[in-house]
Amino acid sequence: MAGKLAFRISRNIERTGRPPIPQAYKWAEAYVATPTRPLLDMSQGVPGIPPPRPLLERLGVVASSPATCGYVPNAGEPLLREAMVKEMKHAYGEDTDVTPDDIAITAGCNLAFVAAVTAIADPGDEVILPVPWYFNHEMTLSMLGVTTVVLKTSPEEGFIPSPERCAALITPKTRAIVLVSPNNPTGAIYPPSLLLSFAKLARGYNIALIIDETYRDFITTGVPHHLFSPSPRPSSPSPISEPSEPWSWRSTFIHLYSFSKAYCIPGHRLGLICASPALQPSIQTALDNIQICAPRAPQLALAPLLPSLRPFVRGTADALAARHALFRAVLPPRWRVGAQGGYYAFVRHPFAGVRAQDVCRRLAQELGVVCLPAGFFGPRMEEGGEGGEEERWIRFSVANVDDEKVRRVCERLKECERVFGWEMQG
Ligand SMILES: Cc1ncc(COP(=O)(O)O)c(C=O)c1O
After folding, report:
1. Which pLDDT tens digit goes with each residue over 124-139?
2. Which CATH class is domain 53-308?
3. What residue spans define the domains of the chain?
4. Burial level of 68, CB count in 10 A (0-12/13-18/19+)?
5. Would you say residue 255 has pLDDT above 80?
6. Which of 105, 110, 216, 372 to probe ligand 1 with, by most ligand atoms within 8 A of CB?
7. Is residue 303's pLDDT more than 70?
8. Considering the entire predicted model, what is its pTM?
9. Per CATH, is 11-50+311-419 categorized as 3.10.20.310?
10. Residues lining ligand 1, judged by CB closer than 6 Å?
11. What is the sign, positive or negative, of the torsion defined by CA atoms of 160, 423, 378, 343?
12. pLDDT tens digits along 167-210
């Protein structure tokens, strides 16, 4: 049993919420699975397939060499930083203006976020986060004593944040705007023109724009954005007034990336920060204190393989896009998709006046379907709320299930319409 501590816990940590996913698994414990009715888990944003074979083989070789057991520089293996410049040109276009000096390798994208915020914000500063948010972002800000300022998004706008509404939230204490595209939890993919508007907004107020692009490799419809280009092209006119100087991404933009999803190696902990060399020494001071260096074996294993893994990454993205289409096609008619992309679909349940939390709890307990209510991704966690419109949304991850499971989940969603006995609304 946990004894009583003779000292107090950090106030910032006490204020920080707990990761909500274990709550969903607690609900699922009540479900009695059978061979014909197994538990169906669409809650976790984890890769549903193993890493590519050549990567596993090379990981084995490099991890067992004594030469790879030492530290590497804080910024990461030079070979991987160079290789990532080429991958970024592949992802964003040949005119991508990025060099190895812009890149630091981190032990995962969560840590990239911790390091980036540590480098630019002090306790009491403000950072703007669209809601629904990726809960680790809000938790990190809270842990660091930085105030989260909520930028609401709406289903009518496809959960796409508005630069104009964001502008109204900026104060002298604002240090950054944080975006996630494709989004967790909504799946919304922010258009390049919107990201450019946010970049110009941030530049105009001399604040940073941090974009977490953990899921960028799963965009199959074009490039994620043109911000790394020396002259990014807006594809629609920007309503934000233009700063007088020409766009230079290094003044404003901090890009975060994860190797966990595209290469299916979340346990090996690799991520990346791409930011101006003027910011890198501060980022590396933070990294030196919290990780010294990122794990070395996966860096050495990935570096020479990256170009040859492009077909694997693209194949995974195409398979995921097909599964999104299947999910949309077999979802019962009264369940409405609000946004979809990357790993996630954000879906409105059909029960009038019922909180998504109660729907998810009963789905897990009675029908063995695990998914996450919108309340896990916003200020109103766990309790409260009246079952209003914004509480009707549920995140489904299509990444960690196969097509057959997607069909079975949708059959059970249909079944729950009858079993739950709640009044339904269009
Ligand atoms: C938006 C977002 N950022 C970061 C992460 C964590 O990435 P990593 O495993 O690289 O720390 C996740 C994982 O689900 C995520 O959804």
Report:
1. 999 999 999 999 999 9
2. alpha beta
3. 11-50+311-419, 53-308
4. middle
5. yes
6. 110
7. yes
8. 0.95
9. no
10. 45, 108-110, 134, 180, 184, 212, 214, 258, 260, 266, 271
11. negative
12. 999 999 999 999 999 999 999 999 999 999 999 999 999 999 99
